[in-house]
């Protein structure tokens, strides 16, 4: 149905008329009524006028459908003498695309009066001229056409002449002066009167010139042309000064009366500007090149005058032959320089006409596009075209197009003309941002202050302007998931990732975030990427000793006196909460009672004897083991080991029983007070030794006296059952096994509160 409507539109041409030089805004016609549409439909379908010429003289009111004058039109300026004078245009409707041709005829008004080129016309007439002799007069010029053009001539009253108005083949009128009666130079040598040219307008306009008739003495013979009408054809591309035709006239008189001079009779200013004649030979040449498109023919009046003043006239008809000298013209009537990349196919980009001023095949044209581009040409009407999109557009691939429209004619040789139209594509938000990486990995050292920059996210958007302005954000985690997003922030514009507060490697060694890049288009498009944060460990934790416990009240480790070199005494166990090199531990003996007696494994922490234990070695040894990590700077801690040198397990028990308080002594002493303590201890030991000798001697004497008064002892052994409830538990002390029990034998008459281990009961 649409195609049928369009073809119907193209087939008929709407015709309107308007007087020339109408006022701006003058009503011409109602387009909506002729199309059968309402003003609302015209507005909805974006009706517009597309003129055939670059200048737009008419305007369409989309709301009412009225066609009005936009700019005054001068018919003579637009069309000259051509009639009818038509202004062609097209009415273009969209949704769907329709067009129909229309034309407005400019009705001539009588706005020009006839004008004589010469205000004074001199005519030489011999006194022998017979009545009814006719003399050709210069024509008056009137640019109007039809009835408004020149219609007739009249002269002022005189007794010798009257005027006769005649019409040429092209419709122009000219005047012939007719002699009423014979002239007598002796009576009146000159006759003067006025001639008036009148047009047919309402009211009529006129122009006047003065005619002076000079009466000449008698000359028997007038010049006679060989032909009254010369017909010749000249190609429009003929060069200047080329001979068009040679006219010839002869005079039977002799002497000066028989000498003929040729001249072009001034019947139009255009003829005088285009042609020239050799007064002696009669050769008519071109003064300028001809243009078939401006004038297709010329009619020249040639006058031959002899020496006596007699003259004759002939007519030269010049037909201009068209040649293919005009290339087609591409006239852009409507152009959309910016086009959305989302425009669908068949979107109108430009409307243009192709015109060739030549005729025939020289004026027949074709139109095409140069190169492969997403555009095509659609024929709307004769020589009227639309440039439309042929496929989907993508600004990201091609941002602008230079569309070259080439028009060719069918002349020989073929002429063509190209016109380039710049079409720029407007961006739409059809591309989401793209991260340069799917996964970003950033490293931050633990304990870095808040605001520390880790790096920068980067996403690009193929769009432009606001559609390409990328904003960054961290996705809000779903409820129930770790709030890792609270550790980091992303600058919305630059994508810089910063820490919100210091991180602890021991608590969070690494975590992942989902980041989003969104553009500023409407609607906004976005994409996601994964951000992996790796916390780099720093040496912020000192080693922690697991064994021996720092608050242990045990006596320590037991080493037999017979222990050889390399004997395993104990193992120091420590851990470091850091990772990597910061958690690699080394052990060394920092201080010992006997520095040469023990050694510590550098990496194992095992304490071995460095040599065999000797009797002179102190039974109680105190070792301080330094545990150090390999961080920068390194961190360390110490472990204190109490080692007891024993002969056997009973010796170890006695030492534990007699000197229980020794375990309660502080395991670490101040290095600065050690010397003082040693001196004080030496004095005390010396005093105690003397006191002990005295006490022992006294005790021996007392014991001998008591034995003399007491009965002899009866030995008695306590069996295993007697110590069921009161056995000594040595579990957990030193290195004795909890599975050992011992038999104890006491004498009834013993005066000492002591016992001895005899043998273990396995």
TrEMBL record:
Annotated membrane topology: Single-pass type I membrane protein
Instruction: Write down the SMART domains for this protein, in alphabetical order.
Output: CA
The molecular function terms in GO held by this entry are: calcium ion binding
Biological processes, Gene Ontology terms: homophilic cell adhesion via plasma membrane adhesion molecules
Domain Cadherin: residue ranges: 10-116, 117-225, 226-330, 331-435, 436-545, 559-662
Cellular component annotations (GO), alphabetically ordered: plasma membrane
What's a Pfam family in this record? Answer: Cadherin_2
Q: Which residues cross the membrane?
A: 674-697
Top-rank taxon: Eukaryota
Function statement: Potential calcium-dependent cell-adhesion protein. May be involved in the establishment and maintenance of specific neuronal connections in the brain.
Give the Gene3D superfamilies listed for this entry: Cadherins
Q: Which PROSITE patterns match?
A: CADHERIN_1 (PS00232), CADHERIN_2 (PS50268)
Name under which the protein is recorded: PCDBG protein
| Alphabetized InterPro entries for the sequence | Cadherin-like_dom (IPR002126), Cadherin-like_sf (IPR015919), Cadherin_C (IPR032455), Cadherin_CS (IPR020894), Cadherin_N (IPR013164), Protocadherin/Cadherin-CA (IPR050174)
- Location relative to the cell: Cell membrane
């Amino acid at each position: 149905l649409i195609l049928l409507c369009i073809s119907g539109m193209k087939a008929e041409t709407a015709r309107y008329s308007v007087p020339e030089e109408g006022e701006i805004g003058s009503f011409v016609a109602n387009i909506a009524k002729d199309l059968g549409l309402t003003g609302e439909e015209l507005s909805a379908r974006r009706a517009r006028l597309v003129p055939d010429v670059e200048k737009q003289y008419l305007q369409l009111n989309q709301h009412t459908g009225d066609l009005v004058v936009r700019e005054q039109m001068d018919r003579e300026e637009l069309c000259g003498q051509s009639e009818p004078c038509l202004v062609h245009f097209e009415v273009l409707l969209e949704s769907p695309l329709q067009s129909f041709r229309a034309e407005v005829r400019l009705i001539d008004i009588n706005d020009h009066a006839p004008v004589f080129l010469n205000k004074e016309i001199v005519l030489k007439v011999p006194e022998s001229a017979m009545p009814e002799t006719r003399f050709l007069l210069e024509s008056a010029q009137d640019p109007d056409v039809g009835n408004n053009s020149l219609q007739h001539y009249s002269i002022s009253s005189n007794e010798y002449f009257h005027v006769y108005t005649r019409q040429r083949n092209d419709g122009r009128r000219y005047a012939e002066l007719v002699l009423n009666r014979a002239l007598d130079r002796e009576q009146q040598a000159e006759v003067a009167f006025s001639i008036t040219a009148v047009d047919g307008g309402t009211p009529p306009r006129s122009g006047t010139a003065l005619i002076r008739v000079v009466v000449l003495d008698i000359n028997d013979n007038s010049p006679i042309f060989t032909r009254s009408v010369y017909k010749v054809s000249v190609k429009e591309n003929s060069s200047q000064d080329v001979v068009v035709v040679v006219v010839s006239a002869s005079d039977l008189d002799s002497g000066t009366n028989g000498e003929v001079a040729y001249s072009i009779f001034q019947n139009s200013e255009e003829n005088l500007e285009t042609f020239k004649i050799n007064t002696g030979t009669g050769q008519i040449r071109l003064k300028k090149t001809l243009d078939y498109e401006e004038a297709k023919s010329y009619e020249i009046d040639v006058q031959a005058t002899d020496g006596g003043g007699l003259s004759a006239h002939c007519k030269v008809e010049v037909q201009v032959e068209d040649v293919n000298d005009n290339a087609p013209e591409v006239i852009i009537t409507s152009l959309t320089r910016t086009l959305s990349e989302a425009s669908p196919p068949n979107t109108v980009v430009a409307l243009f006409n192709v015109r060739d001023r030549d005729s025939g095949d020289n004026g027949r044209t074709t139109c095409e596009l140069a190169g492969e581009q997403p555009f095509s040409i659609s024929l709307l009407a004769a020589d009227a075209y639309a440039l439309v999109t042929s496929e989907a557009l993508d600004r990201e691939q091609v941002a602008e197009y230079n569309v070259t429209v080439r028009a060719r004619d069918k002349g020989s040789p073929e002429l063509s003309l190209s016109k380039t139209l710049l079409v720029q594509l407007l961006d739409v938000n059809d591309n989401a941002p793209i991260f340069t990486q799917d996964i970003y990995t950033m490293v931050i050292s633990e304990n870095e202050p808040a605001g520390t920059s880790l790096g920068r996210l980067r996403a690009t958007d193929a769009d432009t302007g606001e559609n390409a302005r990328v904003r960054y954000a961290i996705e809000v985690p779903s409820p129930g998931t770790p709030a890792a997003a609270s550790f980091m922030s992303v600058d919305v514009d630059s994508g810089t990732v910063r820490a919100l507060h210091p991180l602890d490697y021991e608590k969070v060694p690494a975590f992942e975030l989902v980041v989003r890049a969104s553009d500023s288009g409407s609607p906004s498009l976005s994409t996601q990427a994964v951000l992996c944060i790796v916390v780099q460990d720093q040496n912020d934790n000192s080693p922690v000793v697991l064994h021996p416990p720092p608050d242990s009240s045990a006596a320590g480790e037991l080493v037999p006196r017979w222990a050889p070199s390399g004997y395993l005494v104990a193992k120091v166990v420590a851990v470091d909460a850091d990772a990597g090199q910061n958690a690699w531990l080394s052990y060394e003996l920092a201080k010992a009672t006997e520095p040469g007696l023990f050694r510590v494994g550098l990496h194992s922490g095992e304490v071995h004897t460095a040599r065999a234990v000797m009797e002179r070695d102190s039974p109680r040894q105190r070792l301080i083991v330094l545990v150090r990590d390999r961080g920068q700077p390194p961190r360390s801690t110490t472990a204190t080991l109490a080692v007891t040198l024993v002969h056997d397990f009973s010796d170890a028990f006695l030492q534990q029983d007699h000197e229980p308080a020794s375990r309660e002594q502080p395991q670490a002493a101040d290095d600065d007070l050690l010397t003082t303590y040693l001196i004080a201890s030496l004095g005390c030991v010396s005093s105690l030794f003397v006191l002990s000798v005295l006490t022992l001697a006294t005790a021996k004497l007392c014991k001998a006296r008591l034995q003399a008064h007491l009965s002899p002892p009866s030995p008695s052994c306590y069996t295993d059952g007697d110590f069921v409830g009161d056995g000594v538990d040595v579990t957990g002390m030193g290195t004795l096994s909890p599975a050992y029990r011992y038999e104890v034998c006491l004498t009834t008459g013993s005066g000492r509160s002591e016992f001895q281990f005899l043998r273990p009961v396995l």
